[in-house]
């Protein structure tokens, strides 16, 4: 075979071809068009049981997940309100905001990893810096 014959055969492949016999009779028989529907249009009992079992499984899963959720932790605004301090001196205000934000972030991180000693040390240092800043504000004002 040469290239010309291959190209002619490839062109012939793109042409529509009619099947040798009627295929619809076999398709209708395979999908059961002539078969009568279930009496009264009812669903089979097995499908009803599968639906009920699935619904029960979803309910058990939802209740189990609800019980596994940890107790709610204080939200960011709650923490911010409890540790909010606004110095009188505007030179200290920016540092107070930064230390407050750092304290909030550290408390959130500790809530996610309560056993982390590094986070505990960082929180202690932040609180010490905030205490020193308050003392500076008290001495200046």
Protein model, in words:
The chain is an all-alpha fold and 141 residues long. It has two domains: 45 residues, no CATH class; 65 residues, no CATH class. Helix content is 69%, strand content 0%. It contains six helices and no strands. Helix 5 runs antiparallel to helix 6. The radius of gyration is 37 Å and the shape is elongated. Keywords: Membrane, Transmembrane, Transmembrane helix.
Short description:
The protein has 141 residues and is mainly alpha-helical.
Structure keywords:
elongated, 0% strand, mainly alpha, transmembrane helix, 69% helix, membrane, transmembrane, 141 residues
Mean of all residue-level pLDDT scores? 82
Outline: elongated
Distance between the termini: 101 Å
The largest sheet is: none
User: What is the number of beta strands?
Assistant: 0
Catalogue the unreliable spans: none
Tally of alpha and pi helices:
6
| Integer count of domains | 2
Order of helices and strands: HHHHHH
Q: Approximately what portion of the residues adopt beta-strand conformation? A: under 5%
Class of secondary structure makeup: mainly alpha
Rg result:
37 Å
Helix content, binned percent:
55-70%
């Amino acid at each position: 075979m040469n290239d010309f014959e291959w190209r002619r055969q490839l062109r012939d492949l793109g042409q529509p071809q009619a099947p040798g016999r009627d295929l619809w009779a076999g398709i209708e028989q395979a999908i059961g068009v002539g078969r009568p529907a279930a009496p009264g249009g009812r669903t089979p009992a097995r499908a009803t049981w599968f639906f009920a079992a699935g619904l029960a499984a979803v309910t058990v899963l939802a209740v189990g997940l609800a019980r596994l959720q940890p107790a709610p932790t204080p939200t960011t605004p709650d923490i911010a309100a409890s540790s909010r301090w606004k110095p009188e001196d505007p030179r200290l205000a920016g540092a107070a905001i930064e230390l407050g934000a750092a304290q909030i972030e550290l408390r959130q991180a500790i809530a996610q990893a309560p056993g982390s000693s590094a986070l505990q040390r960082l929180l202690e240092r932040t609180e010490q810096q905030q205490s020193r800043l308050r003392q500076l504000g008290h001495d200046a004002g």
